[in-house]
Specification:
The chain is of the alpha/beta class. The protein has helices spanning 3-15, 23-36, 50-56, 72-84, 98-101, 121-131, 159-174, and strands at 40-44, 64-69, 91-95, 109-114, 132-141, 178-183, 189-194. The chain has a seven-stranded mixed sheet, sandwiched between helices. The chain binds S-adenosyl-L-homocysteine and magnesium ion.
């Protein structure tokens, strides 16, 4: 993969305030992917393709990433970026709302990366659990949401998001089939490994 091009994609996304995965979060995910060597990854929230491009490096030969994005402009840019770094054979973009697309998918995934509407995390989790392979991992980015999730301040505008992120944390921690860690990297990352 062309690192210079990847860095240009990253810089442009940062300039445009597109919330791409943060460096320290990416480091943690890289380690997990190196260990798992996934054949199939599902990503919810493509944006301009930055994280999917980064993750594609760790796929097995013939491995694929399915990624979902509802913003048409971002889908267009993601496709251009993916083409530019030469990984289009590894990344498949579904355009539309993940709430509608997820129930139509019936694949099994080694890794599922949740990185979209925070108010939908409990729904995304339910769908992720349905499609997770035994010993697979579910990752949820922005799980601590600027610290709101762990604070008791409840009056901000992001109330619904915070409530749903808390609900997500409760469900993954209480699920006897999962082993979950909430990491304080970036904006918070929940790592839930399927025990089986
Ligand atoms: N994973 C990307 C960043 C994703 S930002 C990276 O690290 O490079 C979150 C993206 O999710 C945004 O582009 C937003 O448009 C998209 N999104 C939010 N809710 C969504 C939904 N319900 N369905 C599909 N995409 C959604
Ligand atoms: Mg994110």
């Amino acid at each position: 993969m062309n690192k210079k091009e990847l860095n240009q994609i990253k810089q442009k996304a940062l300039e445009e305030h597109i919330p791409i995965i943060m460096d320290d979060t990416l480091e943690v995910v890289d380690k997990i992917l190196k260990e798992i060597k996934p054949k199939k990854i599902l990503e919810i929230g493509t944006a301009v393709g930055y994280s999917a491009i980064c993750f594609s490096e760790y796929l097995q030969t013939n491995g694929v990433i399915d990624t979902i994005e509802r913003d048409n402009q971002r889908v267009i840019e993601a496709k251009i970026n993916i083409e530019k770094v030469g990984v289009s054979s590894k990344i498949n973009i579904y355009e539309g709302d993940a709430v509608e697309i997820l129930p139509t998918l019936n694949e099994k995934y080694d890794v599922i990366f949740i990185d979209a509407a925070k108010g939908k995390y409990p729904f995304f989790l339910k769908e992720a659990l349905r499609m997770l392979k035994p010993n697979g991992v579910i990752l949820a980015d922005n799980i601590l949401y600027k610290g709101y999730v762990m604070s008791d301040y409840n009056k901000h505008k992001q109330r619904t998001a915070v409530r749903n992120l808390r609900e997500y944390i409760k469900e993954v921690t209480e699920d006897p089939n999962l082993e979950t860690e909430i990491l304080e990297v970036g904006d918070g990352l929940a790592v839930s490994k399927h025990k089986n």
